[in-house]
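Request: Mind sharing a record?
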Amino acid sequence: MPQSHEEWLKERKKGIGSSDVAALLGVSPFKSNIDLWEEKVGLKQAEDISDLEYVRNGTLSEAPLRELFKIDYPEYEVSHEENEMMVHPKYNFIRCSPDSLLTEKSTGRKGFLEIKRCMVSNGSQYLKWKNGSIPEYYYTQTLQYFLANPNMKFGYLRAYIIRYSFDGSVSREVRDYKIADSREEIQEDLDYLLPKEIEFWECVEKHIRPARILPSI
């Protein structure tokens, strides 16, 4: 476990983290797979967004949302270690830092909790949360927890959604999404993701620029 946030940031550069997966797959609205590759090989620095208001607010929201989850789900033990990092036992470039780890009290099964504070200001953004769905770039992030840790059996995403309406009103809602209750439910996605990450990291190590993945229309 990295001993400081600065050390954690250095370790993060040595592999593919959960927040990198969407860009690697070409589904991130913020970064392309080429941008990610250039960051990993050192051609450019990743943008420091830690001082942006929405990022600070998201970080500050994690602790109270985690405590509320403990109350809502007493069947789990919830633990959190600052700067914690999980690394794949074979491919050490596959890594992640979950917001919280869960242990099912009755069985001892291991899981994770991912926490998101999301501001929704238009209809297209809200559509990504309708009918029990979550944005694709969040889903791919949760897959990394299963991929990095073979002992991970289930996972939750808790979303604190702040929605701004055209009339100026604001609504706030906490939603919970169970990503999977067993690895078998998402095994097909993991089988798809693993070779993609191996291929991308080979491009990083060999300094071979990957083909750009164009966004879907």
